[in-house]
Fold IL34 protein.
Amino acid sequence: VLAVLGLEVAALGECELARLLQDKLRYEMRLQYMKHNFPINYTVWVQHEEVLRAANVTRLRHGKVSEASLRYLWFHACSQAVLHIVEVLPEKHPSRGYTQELMQLLDALGMEYSGYRQSDVDAVVADLVKQLHSDESRHKAVRPKALLDNCLKVLRMLFGEHCECWGHS
């Protein structure tokens, strides 16, 4: 699909890209590409902040962090998680194409956020994003499917109401 869309993906808006990501992160696809195509109990080492769970988002919401800042944080956490998965895959791995498609969608979404400045996001989110891109954080072993499960749950949580054109299917 993305090969056909080519550069048109970059022209899609935030909500349409989120909808495409939700489609790409369907359970069957996560199961096939992130569980069945990996050895049993396989894990990747990621930074602690890359495991963005719904509970983390809820806690940040209670701290009065803006929804736009939370979507920005989700983008960075999910992009880093997918990048770590791509890095461990051999060139001919059956999951490589799938993860590269996810990266293309996330890169296109990144274009939506490229205009954000440090002052545009809440300070706590700016600090978390800075930690995500540094090597000074704690690391933990996480299964690839669990990383994408969290990406999808938080995606639905943050974009479901914001993008009223799609639901929680």
